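Researcher: Going back to the complex we discussed earlier. I've cleaned up the inputs and rechecked each line, so this should be the final set. Can you rerun the prediction on the complete assembly and write out the structure?
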Amino acid sequence: MNKGLKSHIIKSLGTGIRGDGRSLEDYREITIEKGVSSTAEGSARVKIGDTEVIVGVKLSIDKPFSDRPDEGIVMVGTELLAMSSPEFESGPPSIWSIEIARVTDRGIRESKSIDVKALCITPGEKVWLVSVDICTLNDDGNILDAASLGALAALQDVRLPKVEDNLVNYKEKTDEKLPLQKLPIGVTVLKVGNEFIVDPTSEEEKMADSRLTITSMEDGHICAMQKGGDTPITAEDVEKMVELSIKKSAELRRLLE
Amino acid sequence: MMVYNKRNDGRAFDETRDIEAKAGVIKRADGSAYFRIGKTAAYAAVYGPRDLFPRFMQNPKRGVLRCNYNMMPFSGMGERVRPGANRRAKEISMVTEKALSPVLDLDSFPNAVVDVYIELPQTDAGSRCAGICAASIALADAGLDMKDMVAAVSAGIVDGSVLIDLDYKEEAHEEGGVADIPVAMIPSTGEISLLQMDGVISKENLKKAIAMVKTACIKINEAQKKALKDKYICDVQNCDGDKK
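Model: Rerun complete. Updated structure for the full complex:
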């Protein structure tokens, strides 16, 4: 990015106002809509400003891992659809798409948000496999937070399909929900110059020096982190970023309750 | 003997499912649209004309139209669909290119490519047709020179009855016999730019089915045109697309 423009933007961030009029700690308007795909067992659309993702959850019956015979399996995938940005290409998943999937997966897994033991049907033989797929429709920054929010909303929306003779009947859903015990919310904080911002637009993402995604739970404990960007951060930075993300995660969690 | 004399969802034989069409739904794209027919929904985004790489793929005389049809992993009626292109998706992408290119002026952008991405969040049969309908609106929304839009719908026969816009249940009907014929049409001329078929049908019934498609495509085309007009009315009034 143009150096002059960057120093100009950093200077104006110092006044506490961003290019679109938001303060440094403001999210854009967020809308969450559940049940947006009739073929998924659970689904949600999340819009953060002009960023939009659709998340769908499919359930199937699978064999458990041999070292965890009595636990169901949760898998998270991300499709950065070429539709959603001129910078994305179709083809095998890019490293950015893998990173988003893994960071979202870690938040859900490490918080023990889903009671995987309750997803066991026959120990050692049959368990539920929960596949969460995050698809981007429009990328205007902060896909990471939209993905985390969308994944949880879609998981909340899940109704288990009917099982007949050990086969899934996808045409009929039961009233049974997924055993969700916690709502781990990912908040990404960006460091630009000496300022910290949340919910970056695509343009802001490009000028950031570093980013830290922090996923935290209702009790304020952190269950996943991921540092990105090319510039290192100090321990004091981490403290400030954690503080900010936990504060914002409480706001975002309210949208899911 | 005709057994399927009343459709599962109560539609008349020449009646399509309800249609929703919207233009300009994806901000980053040069043109975009959403098209839903019953429970089959398609998004389409257009990027370009833009430079085509690798360079050897460029054509100095004509532009290239490149379509990419993709089902989201959770959009199938049964199990999860593995992400990435399979043989079916590749074939549909190819026939979609053939369906759309006759209305475009490819000569006007030599060496360049227009990319059309079609994504399906949910399907209930007829997804390639819904994709073509969405893509047409998106191409027009991108401001490309076009002779007309392309409308598409499937027709067919279910247990002796010729009908239009089969849903999944009808496609999977077990008794009698089923033929499914996706057709894309240029409404102003009645020309057909996509025609495929699965199943068995007599030539008399095929004629009947294509006649049904023609009427339905005119109706679909009205919805496509309205979607484009609505976007610009909204732009002028500076209001949100949803409120209109």
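Model: Worth noting: The two ends of chain A are 40 Å apart (CA to CA).
Researcher: Good, that matches what I expected from the previous run.
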